Amino acid sequence: MELILLQKVTNLGALGDKVTVKRGYGRNYLVPQGKAVPATAANIAAFEARRAEYEAKAAALLGDADARRARFADASVTLYANASTEGKLYGSVGPRDIAEAFTAAGLPLNKSEVILGEGPLRRTGEFEVMLHLHADITVPVKVVVEAEA
């Protein structure tokens, strides 16, 4: 399936790129999310007519993400979970828990923006977690997991 990207998509392309993707990815994710349109002659002409508008929107999104990066630059959050005396958690701390903790601390965050490279956190300690705020912006934050008293 050939599509025209309406915004930058990680590992796929930039605004205005004509890309070929599997039908399911295009039909079920890119098109419904407003990230792409089918590459028909009419859509290509409409895109070229509105290219400046799309570029301005992309620049605004990048600016917002850059402002969020500044707020998250030195941010850290402490989570409390049930744990054994050896520090092993009874359960785990996942992206949803981290996003909720940052949101409660006044820094709104979606769980889809939290990147846990090695899976959920299953031990107490201090961890560096990456936040993917935009296709071009990733920021590390500190997450501390402590045992509940």
Automatic annotation (TrEMBL):
Taxonomic lineage from the root: Bacteria, Pseudomonadati, Pseudomonadota, Gammaproteobacteria, Lysobacterales
Entry's Gene Ontology BP terms: translation
Gene name per UniProt: rplI
Record protein name field: Large ribosomal subunit protein bL9
Keyword field contains Transit peptide: no
InterPro entries listed in its UniProt record: Ribosomal_bL9, Ribosomal_bL9/RNase_H1_N, Ribosomal_bL9_bac/chp, Ribosomal_bL9_C, Ribosomal_bL9_C_sf, Ribosomal_bL9_N, Ribosomal_bL9_N_sf
GO MF term (any one): structural constituent of ribosome
PANTHER family, sorted: 50S RIBOSOMAL PROTEIN L9 (PTHR21368)
Entry's family note: Belongs to the bacterial ribosomal protein bL9 family.
GO cellular component terms listed in the entry, alphabetical order: ribonucleoprotein complex; ribosome
Known role: Binds to the 23S rRNA.
Matching SUPFAM superfamilies: L9 N-domain-like, Ribosomal protein L9 C-domain
Keywords, in A-Z order: Ribonucleoprotein, Ribosomal protein, RNA-binding, rRNA-binding
Ranges where the Ribosomal protein L9 domain occurs: 13-40
